[in-house]
Design a protein that fits this description.
With about 130 residues, the chain is mainly α. About 80% of the residues lie in helices and about 0% in strands.
Length: about 130
Amino acid sequence: MDNIVRRLELLKLEGLGFSQAEIVRELSQKAECSARTIYSDFETRASWQPLIQSVLKSEDILMKIVNRYEQIYRQASICHLTSGSELVKLGALNIMLKANTLLFQTVVLPEITNRLQVLEKRANQGVFVP
């Protein structure tokens, strides 16, 4: 297992909620490397994680998040349309609603942040904007 695959697996396991100790134990066996190597990956992640996940610019992060919410919505929609269980359909509708809400918040957030920065700049200059 090469460095990139090992580190992607580390991020996946962490995203699934595994503790650092569990990740080290699992990956050191799977990648056939020492526990120290995995701990080193954790310690140096600030240098490699942005490169692996292509998150060097905030716009890239935003687009990734939007894409993930869209995929969650689509999967829930398919589940809603194909399931025979009313409880599953209700759960899928709930996930669709949450995905839409989070998607909207994610898309609107940069615009709100920009507006706040403009207002803060004007306030620092003493310009009143109602």
